[in-house]
Amino acid sequence: MAWRYKLRVKNAPVGVEVVESVLEKHEIRMREVMLEEVEDKMRSELTWGVHRIHWEKNREIWNMYKDNKISKKVLDFLMKQKLIDHALLNRWNKPGYERLCSTLVLSKSNTNFGTTGICRVPLRQRHGQIMPNVQTGCVSCASEDKGPIWWNDEVPDRVKEIIRKRSGQFEEDEAHENGEVEEEEVNKDSSDDGDGSEVAGNTESLSNGRLGSESEKEEELVDKNRGNEDVDDGQNEEEQDEDENPSKRRKVSQNSASSLE
Length: 261
Fold this sequence. Notes:
Elements: H1 2-7, H2 20-34, H3 48-66, H4 72-80, H5 86-92, E1 138-140, E2 149-150, H6 157-244, H7 246-260
Antiparallel strand pairs: 1-2
Helix pairs in contact: 2-3
């Protein structure tokens, strides 16, 4: 009701009564939003409806001024009485900010990375899931998206087209990645087969070499044992000869003694 007293001041310009119905309409909407249940809402979602009504009220009065339904004096009077957002209307005069949802999204201190709100980024330049701004509930207020697009609006056809193209691109990229992965697996399997054959050949050659060396060692041991047996046989034969011919041994001893004399 405070806005009615502000409209009835003495220095109010002619034609200010035109905006009275607009202010009353949005005041009723604001009350309804404030009385809504908040149990199923996120903490940041509680003020989204307030931001949308605030934008729509200021936009409607701004459009009335652009359509020459109210004069410049009436607009300045409303700004002076703080019945409309002076900072927001001034931003709408600048190129690139014609559809700005709120001046809050321009404050870099409100974000974790020191940037403007996500709703200022055009939809075609976004990556991943498209989400609304946490503070205002605006999905996009970029000039090229013809917004603002609010969280509870129906998805525009232009946004659907962007999502469709992006999903198609994702599917192509995924298929391409899957193809590359399959090729890598095939190459890996082939390389593993080649390595396996080489390993098998190496193990076979190693086993053959080991078997060969072991057989050679066994043959050397057999030959050595045979030589030892032959030596033992010769010694045994000599001892048998000496035992069988004692006379021969005596003659040898006599001959040796005579030679010494």
